[in-house]
From TrEMBL:
<dbReference type="InterPro" id="IPR017853">
    <property type="entry name" value="GH"/>
</dbReference>
<dbReference type="InterPro" id="IPR015020">
    <property type="entry name" value="Rv2525c-like_Glyco_Hydro-like"/>
</dbReference>
<keyword id="KW-0378">Hydrolase</keyword>
<protein>
    <submittedName>
        <fullName>Glycoside hydrolase domain-containing protein</fullName>
    </submittedName>
</protein>
<feature type="domain" description="Rv2525c-like glycoside hydrolase-like">
    <location>
        <begin position="36"/>
        <end position="242"/>
    </location>
</feature>
<dbReference type="GO" id="GO:0016787">
    <property type="term" value="F:hydrolase activity"/>
</dbReference>
<dbReference type="Pfam" id="PF08924">
    <property type="entry name" value="Rv2525c_GlyHyd-like"/>
</dbReference>
Length: 250
């Protein structure tokens, strides 16, 4: 459904919102697998990794034709972009945020995220989620650089009439965004938080201030590495409770 004027979100003025169960898995499944899961599984939406230099999986299925096919079968899609990662994070990611490049890199990655979404047939007024993995939030310089990057990424999406979503961990990356006071300008419009408590809800046990991201703007990754079979097809996925904007498919 389309909901107009969600509170606190000036850009864009409307969004396609999905409420229900979603799943995410690293490589987008084949269209036949998606069809089998749609016919007998509990899920109505699936996350797909559309780009970013730190995206870790090949995506041989993820084309505009695939998007059109699975959307036509009734799936809602949650685009996820693996952008630059924190300077204080322990990893081998090729693209890193620094204090010097945070703003310019956020703007460039935001523009790239929109271009990749549009190439897949995803229109403005839809959402794209920025994936920020765990990092040391006791490092204030690191936190500041990451927030600058996030805000710049969000501005780039807003300038192109997309919703700027954010995926992060309640113990680190999501917490840093939730606790970014007093200046909440250009912070994410929707929050997809990872908290592995087994609860398929976006309300009960919400780990941050209750007034944050209300009005259909929350996703909750509540279980990982769940091996499930529907329509005779087995996949290992992460489970999500969803009540937030998704892609607008043209």
């Amino acid at each position: 459904m389309t909901v107009s004027g969600l509170p606190g979100v000036p850009h864009p003025s409307s969004a396609v919102v999905f409420t229900g169960l979603a799943f995410d898995t690293c490589t987008a499944p084949s269209a036949s697998t998606m069809s089998a899961w749609r016919s007998s599984g509990p899920y109505g939406a699936a996350a797909v990794y559309i780009g970013g230099k730190n995206r870790g999986c090949a995506q041989p299925q993820l084309t505009s034709s695939w998007v059109e096919t699975v959307s036509g079968a009734g799936w809602k899609l949650i685009p996820l972009y693996v952008g630059a990662q924190p300077p204080c994070q322990t990893s081998g990611n090729p693209e890193r945020i620094t204090a010097a490049n945070a703003a310019s890199l956020g703007a460039a990655d935001g523009a790239d995220a929109v271009a990749r979404a549009k190439a897949l047939g995803m229109r403005s007024s839809g959402a794209i989620y920025l994936d920020m993995e765990a990092y040391d939030t006791s490092d204030t310089a690191c936190v500041d650089s990451v927030l600058t990057y996030i805000q710049s990424w969000d501005k780039a999406l807003h300038a192109r009439a997309f919703w700027a979503g954010f995926y992060g961990f309640t113990s680190s990356s999501a917490a840093a965004v939730a606790q970014a006071e007093p200046n909440r300008t250009d912070l994410p419009d929707a929050l997809w938080y990872a908290r592995y408590d087994g609860g398929d809800t976006t309300t009960t046990g919400f780990p941050f201030a209750s007034g944050l991201w209300t009005g259909h703007r929350r996703g909750h990754q509540y279980q990982v590495d769940s091996t499930e079979t529907y329509g005779g097809v087995k996949l290992t996925v992460d489970r999500d409770a969803w009540d937030a904007p998704v892609a607008d498919i043209g």
